[in-house]
Amino acid sequence: MKSEGLIGFIGLGNMGRHMAANLAKAGHALVAFDAAGTAERAPPGAQVAASTDEVASRAETVFLSLPDGAASASVAQEIAGAEGRLTACVVDTSTIGVEAACRIAQSLAAAGVEYIDAPVSGGVAGAAAATISTMFAGSAQSFERLFPALKAMSKNPFHVGTQPGQGQAMKLANNFLSGLAMAGTSEAVCFGLSQGLEMKTMLDVLNVSTGRNTATSDKFPNRVVTDTYDAGFLSALYMKDLRLYMQGVQAARTPEDIATACLGVWSRFVDASPGADFTEIYRFIRDSSSGAS
Fold it and tell me: What's residue 5's pLDDT?
């Protein structure tokens, strides 16, 4: 079963272009737009729009894949005010934080447009392979209606809640744990190496023991041991997510001791290497004279 009608897709960057391509491969008709240039980024078979307004006038459902909350808010405002608007539902796959998602949902609701908070996780490789997870916060009816499109882009679409911001909360909690695992594993590996253990041996043991995590099972074997450091997720982008997590934690007044320590390590790394891959924090921790302290 395919979603009926033309689907809009705005934002064809590192993640968005792959997600849009997977929608098209699954047989969904698309109209796409990217402010940085659409024709060269749109997947084969997709119709190319000249503006956000054009997408909004042609597609009842529009997916967004944008860099931050300011971009999502700006595009949402354009959609809401588009002349001859057909769009009645916006599905935002961007990571923008709880507060921004709630604010955008309110502004679109005032214009009669449903906002779905649906960030994704899995990186560029996951977006290309359609193995990403989607954390969908919206009504059960909307989840069912949009499921064919979600499944085309995402191996694991989860209905995490009904309120805007709940998708963001799930995504930010996930990314906090991912970065914590990467930094913590880096420290643990450095300790093991100092005791004469081999990294491969450590990973073999950890991955069948209680210390197993996404860094030991994926990032280290595939990006660190190989010396490629090519997860495709910039450290500066991770810092954006970690700061959004901290904002949410502080607003909710939930515990933050471990997150604060994690933020300190990542802040020092990003200050030193803002263009580095996420996985290069291992080299930073390894080469730091004071470790991660």
Answer: 86
| Residue 1 in this model has a pLDDT that exceeds 80 | no
SS (H, E, C) the chain: CCCCCCEEEECCCCCHHHHHHHHHHCCCCEEEECCCCCCCCCCCCCEECCCHHHHHHHCCEEEECCCCHHHHHHHHHHHHCCCCCCCCEEEECCCCCHHHHHHHHHHHHHCCCEEEECCEECHHHHHHHCCEEEEEECCHHHHHHHHHHHHHHEEEEEEEECCCCHHHHHHHHHHHHHHHHHHHHHHHHHHHHHCCCCHHHHHHHHCCCCCCCHHHHHHHHHHHCCCCCCCCCEHHHHHHHHHHHHHHHHHHCCCCHHHHHHHHHHHHHHHHCCCCEHHHHHHHHHHCCCCCC
Indicate if 171 belongs to the active site: yes
The one catalytic residue in 151, 155, 171, 200 is 171
**pLDDT beyond 70 at 244:** yes
Whether this prediction's pTM lies above 0.85 is answered by yes
Say what the pLDDT of residue 291 is: 43
